[in-house]
Specification:
The chain is of the alpha+beta class and 390 residues long. Helix content is 31%, strand content 28%. The chain has twelve helices and 16 strands. Strand 2 and strand 3 form a beta hairpin. The chain is elongated and about 95 Å long.
Length: 390
């Protein structure tokens, strides 16, 4: 089954919106978020049991309430509600159409219908740029005509806009923040020999940026304010993984417009938010030379279908926010060499010896034929020393 569902839950007097999130390594648990303008927002950590007939039994175990800024925290169940909470059960089944549906009930006779739908990536239409010059014109038109400011490159046109955390089967951000990010925090302080205050927004975002750029799965998607940096990442990924992906013919560059970024920017971002969200996350380049070199910026989300969220916003506002261009993966050598001539290479985008090695690895992959005339030495080679002499 899928790991994230969205829909509604009915009760005797209202219908509330709901989001159900699971982690692949904790199949016996799920987080059920419910919210409504006229009711208290809350989240339930539930046990999930698969019965002999294939039905899924959900039993609430821990109540989470919503803090002032929207984050969730565990809280005791009020004594007057304890009996209702302990007796609540939900019985769900997976439909052939991707639904997760059923009903809930408790000992007071309260109950209702649950209708959830799986979240699958929405397809994004792309224009074909068959030549590098076509892409450069497309990039100019995005800046000039569409107000595009965020760009992202994929080594395959088949890849969706999903975070590394979601690609690793993790959707529960409350667990990620409490477990994984706390561990990374301790190690980062030791490795960098600095104090990182998790209650300080700048420090917190810096830690997330470091986690992303050093390979830890996060709820962030890397973007760049440069379409050419995005092109580097797309073609570098295609080149470095061509043996593992023999059927990949096209790479893809996404462009996101400034109006969408502005409309979704918030004063502060709370990762374990109580309902679905998408937000830009621009952070300090402090202690992150890679982020600085790559003109990096981020989108943070707890939704597994970012393209679908953007598409919904487009329909609601009658505007286009997300664009994409595809290029043949066979252009990798031409493009990466041209980008290197522009000053964008593994060495400049990844400061340090690992970046230099990446640049040289690309050059080795291109191949350099031997010259037709072998260069002759300008002087006689030194005499061979007598055997045994030093």
């Amino acid at each position: 089954m899928d790991l994230q569902y969205f829909g509604t839950i009915e009760s005797n007097d209202r219908t509330v919106e709901a989001m159900l999130s699971m982690d692949v390594d904790r199949p016996a648990e799920c987080m059920l978020h419910v919210w409504d303008a006229g009711a208290p927002q809350k989240t339930l950590l539930c046990e999930r049991h698969i019965l002999d007939d294939g039905a899924h039994l959900l039993i609430p175990r821990t109540l989470f309430l919503v803090a002032e800024k929207g984050g969730i925290y565990p809280a005791p169940v009020p004594e007057k509600d304890r009996a209702n909470f302990d007796s609540t059960r939900a019985m769900l089944r997976i439909g052939h159409d991707g639904t997760y549906h059923g009903s809930w009930v408790n000992d007071t006779g309260a109950g209702g219908v649950i209708r959830l739908q799986s979240s699958t990536p929405t397809e994004v239409k792309a224009v074909d740029c068959n030549h590098w010059a076509d892409f450069r014109e497309w990039a100019n038109s995005m800046r000039r005509d569409k107000q595009a400011t965020y760009f992202r490159g994929h080594g395959s046109s088949k890849f969706a806009l999903t975070t590394t955390l979601q690609r690793n089967g993790r959707n529960r951000l409350e667990r990620y923040c409490a477990e994984t990010l706390q561990q990374f925090h301790r190690h980062a302080e030791a490795a960098l020999n600095i104090r990182i205050d998790m209650n300080n927004g700048d420090d917190y975002s810096m830690l997330l940026g470091l986690a992303q750029h050093f390979g830890l799965p996060t709820p962030l998607l890397d973007w760049s304010t440069s379409p050419y940096v995005a092109a580097f990442f797309a073609f570098a990924d295609a080149l470095e993984n061509r043996d593992a992906r023999p059927g990949i013919e096209k790479i893809r560059i996404f462009a996101l417009t400034e109006p969408f970024v502005t409309n979704h920017r918030t004063p502060s971002v709370v990762l374990p938010y109580f309902k679905p969200y998408v937000s830009p996350l621009e952070m300090s380049f402090r202690n992150n030379p890679r982020l600085y070199a790559q003109q990096g910026c981020f989108i943070v989300t707890n939704h597994s279908d970012l393209s679908g969220v953007i598409r919904k916003a487009e329909l609601e506002n009658g505007k286009e926010y997300l664009f994409a261009a595809d290029m043949p993966a066979r252009l990798a050598e031409e493009v990466l060499q041209d980008l290197a001539y522009m000053g964008l290479s593994g060495a400049t985008l990844f400061p340090g010896l690992d970046g230099v090695s990446r640049m040289l690895k690309h050059e080795m992959a291109f191949g350099h034929p031997a010259p037709e005339v072998v260069t002759k030495p300008t002087q006689d080679p030194p005499a061979v020393p007598d055997s045994g002499s030093i």
